[in-house]
Amino acid sequence: MRLKKTYSSREVAALTGLTARQLQLWDAGGLLSPTIPSHRTDAGGYTERRYTPIELFELLVLADLRRRGFTIQQLHQIIRVLQEQFGERLYEATGGGGAVQLLTDGEEVYARTAAGAFFNLLKAPGQPMLVIGNEGLLKNLSSSMRPRRRKKPIGSGKSSRRLPPGAE
């Protein structure tokens, strides 16, 4: 995929599996706002939101967490704790080369610092954890593109319309 300078809401929705309404609500709720917000035009309509590649990456991560069952409140908490406690964006902690790496076991989200300290971002983000044993259950949190649905070529396959009897 070739990176663009910005992506429209429609492109982001197609790539992430989120709906345009979810993007609108996430923007209004302060979860993740686009670089270029929607604004009213002279003709009375509205422009489309525009997202940077970093925002697209972060939306892919957030969409993946939502599909795994994490709540919107938990997503807000993850972003807030990353910023306040570690001074990192979600992008930096999920593949952007930051000092913190996000991990999940499917139920919790953890931050591992460069020094090896672990923090549970959802339960006690200020308290380092004592980790003993196999870290193998934890998976790196990163983004993944959703495959685009391809349109079926016209005339392929059988028609769903039935012909009247005797007309073949």
Task: Give the structure's gist in a few sentences.
The chain has 168 residues and is an alpha+beta fold. The protein contains five helices and seven strands, in the order E-H-H-E-H-H-H-E-E-E-E-E. Helices cover 30% and strands 15% of the residues.
How does this model look, in words?
The protein is of the alpha+beta class and 168 residues long. It has a single domain, classed as Multidrug-efflux Transporter Regulator, Chain: A, Domain 2 (Orthogonal Bundle), CATH 1.10.1660. Helix content is 30%, strand content 15%. It has five helices and seven strands, in the order βααβαααβββββ. The strands form two sheets. Strands 6-5-4-3-7 form a five-stranded antiparallel β-sheet, covered by helices on one side. The protein has a two-stranded antiparallel ribbon with strand order 1-2. β3 and β4 form a beta hairpin. The longest helix has 15 residues. The chain is elongated and about 55 Å long. The termini are far apart.
